[in-house]
Amino acid sequence: MATYDSLGVTYARTRRPDPRIAERIHAALGNVTDVINVGAGTGSYEPPATVLAVEPSRVMLAQRPPDAAPAVQAVAEQLPLRDGAVDAVMALLTVHHWSDPAAGIAELRRVARRRVVVLTWDQRVFRERFWLVREYLPEAAAFDDTRAMPTARLAELLGGAREEPVPVPHDCVDGFAAAYWRRPHAYLDPRVRAGISLLAQPGEEALAPGLARLADDLNTGRWHTRHVDLLTRETLDVGYRLLVSDH
């Protein structure tokens, strides 16, 4: 399987924090004094209280802004930190990349004194509500079936967590998988797909037939006719969820 040393080369270009999603994440963290970001990538959504980022990919670490929090190259399953090192730990759209999610979650709980915040998605809801995987790229959805952990199981591993839906704005700045739900032409851009692991990891050959169908439906207007209900919506819930666990 490809890693972010190969997939993450252009991440800083297409994966910028969306302020509305940032507000939700920071509200979930609350008034904590210090935060560690695990699976930090290029540093999106890190609040001012962030004291350390943990990221396994050198390529992703190299794209962090100069004024970002200090970072260490390590994996979630073996955090190089003492028990109760910080008030809170956050892990955003990263758990599905871990080799052992249960071990990683146990590490988050070990290091956090007060709170753990995880941003993930409900694969069942994602499959049902997101037109791209439902109608054009079931191969990508099948790939995610193998790595997406049910939110109920994650909540259980977190020792009990409340679950908050995170609707995606129609003009979402952060180019993750469902960010362009009202801008379908974006999925035809290889630069956009390169920043979405759902689309980058299966490979272009596997996605080519579905993308060709999408291009044809956009050219003929069939997509817009089929999805006219989406064109006036401001947000869409396609299964992204914040899980918040307190100690």
Textual characterization of the structure:
This protein is α/β, with parallel strands linked by helices. It has a single domain (4-246), classed as Rossmann fold. Helix content is 38%, strand content 17%. It has 13 helices and 9 strands. It has helices spanning 4-7, 11-14, 19-29, 58-62, 101-111, 123-129, 131-136, 138-145, 151-157, 190-194, 197-200, 204-220, 222-226; strands at 35-38, 50-54, 71-72, 86-92, 112-121, 162-165, 168-169, 235-236, 240-246. The longest helix has 17 residues, at 204-220.
Radius of gyration: 18 Å
Shape: elongated
Please report the total strand number as a whole number. Answer: 9
Query: Could you tell me the mean pLDDT?
Result: 92
CATH architecture classification: 3-Layer(aba) Sandwich
> Helix fraction?
25-40%
Strand line-up across the major sheet: 3-2-1-4-5-9-6
* Beta-strand content bin: 15-25%
Oligomer: single chain
Sum this structure up briefly.
The chain is of the alpha/beta class and 247 residues long.
Structural topology:
Layout: H1 4-7, H2 11-14, H3 19-29, E1 35-38, E2 50-54, H4 58-62, E3 71-72, E4 86-92, H5 101-111, E5 112-121, H6 123-129, H7 131-136, H8 138-145, H9 151-157, E6 162-165, E7 168-169, H10 190-194, H11 197-200, H12 204-220, H13 222-226, E8 235-236, E9 240-246
Parallel strand pairs: 1-2, 1-4, 2-3, 4-5
Antiparallel strand pairs: 5-9, 6-9, 7-8
